[in-house]
Amino acid sequence: MYYGEIKKTDIANGIGVRVSLFVSGCTHCCKNCFNAETWCFTYGRPFTADTERELLEALAPSYINGLTVLGGEPFEPDNQRALLPFLQKVRRRYPKKTIWCFTGSVLENELLSESPWRCEVTDGLLSQLDVLVDGPFIEEKKDISLRFRGSSNQRLIRMPETLRAGRVVLWDEETEE
Fold this sequence. Notes:
Blueprint: E1 2-10, E2 17-23, E3 45-46, H1 49-58, E4 64-70, H2 77-93, E5 98-102, H3 107-111, H4 122-127, E6 131-134, E7 155-158, H5 159-165
Parallel strand pairs: 2-4, 4-5, 5-6
Antiparallel strand pairs: 1-2, 1-3, 6-7
């Protein structure tokens, strides 16, 4: 897996101050994507053990609320295979920090059912997430007033509750921290 950027203090992609990892590779290719350069699977730098150490160190300060993974597309199968062991390390080392992930896939249609994005590690990856922001960016539904998403079709999903309930449970910014 490659990554395009690491932001060590990001306040735009989840609650609080976060560390954000922008992975490379995306076959969704949404019209007017804000990060189209990351569509290429070899954009940026290889994700290595050194990259993992850098991210784990960046997550250490108490003012960091958690990690956000975006792209590109984290749910491209090759990216999932690289991300799962890393997110498991993050979860073990920082159990009180949250993990958010953005995907252009729709949870029920593409990540929980047969699709090009579902692979042998998808369920494990979903189980590591606190919040999944799902759905492609749709230019015609762009809404700059929305928090943490670019178009009104995208949803913020509470993953632990969703997996327990067997149905989508939306994240509510009025009640969440």
